[in-house]
Amino acid sequence: MRRILIPVIDKEFELVPQFEKLEEEVKEVWEGIMSLYDGANIEEDGKLHEELASEVLDVIQVCVGLAEIIERQCKGSLEKAAEKHPAKLINYGFKFKKILRVDED
Asked: Is residue 81 part of a domain?
């Protein structure tokens, strides 16, 4: 089992600025993906994949911040949504190859 730590930043973010940050980070993921497909970029030792993974973690980090804002504004809403989420995906026809467990310390 791999262990990846995603910290929850101790700052009272607001929804609109956090969403703007998400847009910025998603753009950086897109740029990373395009770098992988750019014939001029020859990957050395997985460097481009590592940079892309870093940008993906940034997106996850911003989404954690969004989840924190939602939970701060309406306690229990995140857990309720999380309980329904797997069924929603199954209803869309997705199958799971594994489940990532998120535990709060």
From this structure: no
Q: Structurally, how many domains does the chain consist of?
A: 1
Global pTM reads 0.86
Q: What is the pLDDT of residue 11?
A: 87
Q: Give phi and psi for 94, each to the nearest 5.
A: -80, 145
Range of the domain at 39: 15-75
The pLDDT score that the predictor gives to residue 80 is: 96
Query: What's residue 102's pLDDT?
Result: 84
Helix pair angle (47-73, 15-37), 10° resolution: 160
39: in domain:
yes
Residue 40 lies in a domain: yes
Contact status, residue 49 vs residue 96, Cβ threshold 8 Å: no
* Closest by Cα among 43, 39, 62, 60 to 51: 43
